[in-house]
Write a structure and sequence with these properties.
By secondary structure, the chain is of the alpha+beta class. The protein has three domains: 167 residues, 3-Layer(bba) Sandwich (FAD/NAD(P)-binding domain), CATH 3.50.50; 156 residues, D-Amino Acid Oxidase, subunit A, domain 2 (D-Amino Acid Oxidase, Chain A, domain 2, 2-Layer Sandwich); 84 residues, no CATH class. Helix content is 36%, strand content 22%. It contains 13 helices and 19 strands. Helix 10 crosses helix 11. InterPro entries: FAD-dep_OxRdtase, FAD/NAD-bd_sf. Keywords: Oxidoreductase. This is Glycine/D-amino acid oxidase-like deaminating enzyme. It comes from Kibdelosporangium banguiense.
């Protein structure tokens, strides 16, 4: 904000804290409706997910067996499907944004690297969901996949082509969203908010890094994992909302040695606590390789060398052997917003006018047109077309599965990380490792809470990060207290 800004310059109907795909999309839909709206965030987006994303905007490539086994997962799948139908018009609104598309469809391959309990079953789940929704796909011979050249021990066994699962250029998408937002009358403020300003049971605005206070009837926390810092300035609310941690990921942009790139996304099913390995074309002779997923209590701005090495090794072994001769143009770091129960945080808190639009984990960019439309309806007092209340921020932990099921899932995914790193073990040793992992994760879950159990990736990470374990215990205790008081 300028030092000479007037009081009117600091007054808005809605302030959106966060300038990633979700925050800008919400700001844009509000501005189109004539709302006086400001979007806040540093231009380089230090804790964002979308700026480092492969930006695959499909629905079915992300389907897993666990997604299909719960009502919550089914809801997320249905939302993603609805969002996918909005993308053509959404891109057209962004100055004929069809040129933002970088891939023609997606190839999902089932290769020899993973575990049948994860890779094979998730591959089958993708096919089942495509069939259920009547969505077009085609089985293809892996040997006919252009550009694919893995090492022989990582060769694909099966593959299918999803013609409607595309990808966009994420940095350019964000630039177009910013341009459209300001053209519609929105205000971009290149600062982060440091505090939610409130009085009694009503929000009044936010305080910026510069000390400037913005007044607003509504404040929306849409800053991804970094939203937690703002939420913590309202501790009585923060205690009863699943805390946010980072699903830190590394991706790279590479200039291929031979100047080629695939026409389509090439990916595996989701596995090893992460989205599947994927290579996305980014123009002539350039590819995006992603992505890792490591739970971190705080957002990260730099990549660990070990994660970069792991990612590049996966790309070379599983997709194209001569990628090692490519020029490494950029290493990117993203922070996916992960709530302590693994589910989105959408809607108004119990502090009037304070809203949340985060916790979307891997789905934020894909869902952005849909969630922006629906949140705009709520903020304007209109009836939304989908029930966002299922993921209201103030809630007891959402736990779709039993403790035993979660522990077993954690063990399997932990073992999958070993196979993806190409470990070599005596044939009988994995059974012993699984046995002791099962005992260890059961003990950790028992120590966290008698009944509540976090999602597998958080359960695994709580063994490493003591602060994460404490955050889980605090949230579970606060939820039990709230239930007791209400009762």
């Amino acid at each position: 904000m300028s030092a000479t800004s007037t009081e009117d310059d600091r007054r808005f109907d809605v302030v959106v804290a966060g300038n990633g795909a979700l925050g800008l999309s919400l700001g844009l839909t509000l501005a189109w409706r004539g709302v006086r709206v400001a979007v806040l965030g540093r231009p380089h987006r230090p804790a964002a997910a979308s700026s480092a994303a492969g930006a695959m905007i499909g629905t079915f490539g992300e389907v897993t067996t666990t997604l299909l086994k719960s009502d919550y997962g089914r809801t997320k799948l249905d939302w993603a499907y609805q969002a996918s139908k909005l993308w053509p018009e959404w891109l057209a609104e962004l100055s004929d944004g069809s040129d933002l598309l970088t891939a023609e469809g997606t190839i999902v391959m089932l290769n020899t690297v993973g575990l049948p309990e994860i890779d094979t079953q998730n591959y089958k789940a993708i096919r089942a969901a495509l069939t259920e929704y009547g969505e077009k796909f085609e089985d293809i011979d892996p040997e006919d996949i252009d550009w694919l050249d893995p090492e022989p021990t990582a060769r694909p066994l099966q593959a299918m082509f999803l013609p409607h699962e595309h990808a966009v250029n994420a940095p350019e998408l964000l630039a177009r969203l910013e341009k459209a937002f300001t053209a519609a009358g929105g205000t971009l403020i290149t600062e982060q908010a440091t505090r939610v300003d409130h009085s009694g049971d009503r929000v009044r605005g936010v305080k910026l890094e510069s000390g400037t206070v913005l007044s607003a009837e509504h404040v929306v926390l849409a800053a991804g994992a970094a939203s937690q810092t703002l939420l913590d300035t309202v501790p009585e609310q923060a205690a009863r909302i699943p805390g946010l941690v980072s699903g830190y990921g590394v991706s790279v942009l590479a200039d291929t040695a031979d100047g080629t790139a695939p026409r389509s996304v090439i990916r595996t099913p989701n596995r090893a606590f992460a989205c599947g390995l994927h290579v996305v074309p980014r123009g002539t002779g350039q590819v995006y390789i992603g992505a890792t997923n490591v739970i971190s209590p705080e957002p990260r701005e730099t990549a660990l060398i070990s994660d970069v090495l792991f990612l590049l090794d996966c790309g070379l072994r599983q997709v194209r052997r001569n990628l090692g001769e490519s020029g490494l143009r950029r290493i990117q770091v993203g922070n996916r917003p992960v709530a302590l129960d693994g589910m989105p945080l959408l809607g108004e808190t119990e502090l009037g006018g304070l809203w949340m639009m985060t916790g979307t984990y891997r789905d934020g960019l894909t869902l952005s047109p849909l969630l922006a439309r629906e949140m705009t309806s709520l903020l304007l007092g209109e009836q939304p077309t989908i029930d966002l209340d299922v993921f209201r921020p103030v809630r007891p932990p959402i736990q779709p599965f039993t403790r035993a099921e979660i522990v077993e899932n954690t063990v399997i995914h932990m073992m999958a990380t070993g196979y993806e790193t190409n470990w070599t073990l005596p044939v009988d040793l994995p059974f012993t490792i699984e046995h002791y992992l099962r005992r260890a994760y059961t003990r950790i879950a028992d120590e966290l809470d008698p009944a509540f159990t976090p999602p597998p990736e958080l359960l695994a990470s709580s063994r490493i990060h003591l602060s994460l374990a404490q955050s889980l215990r605090d949230y579970y205790a606060a939820s039990r207290t709230a239930v007791a008081v209400a009762g």
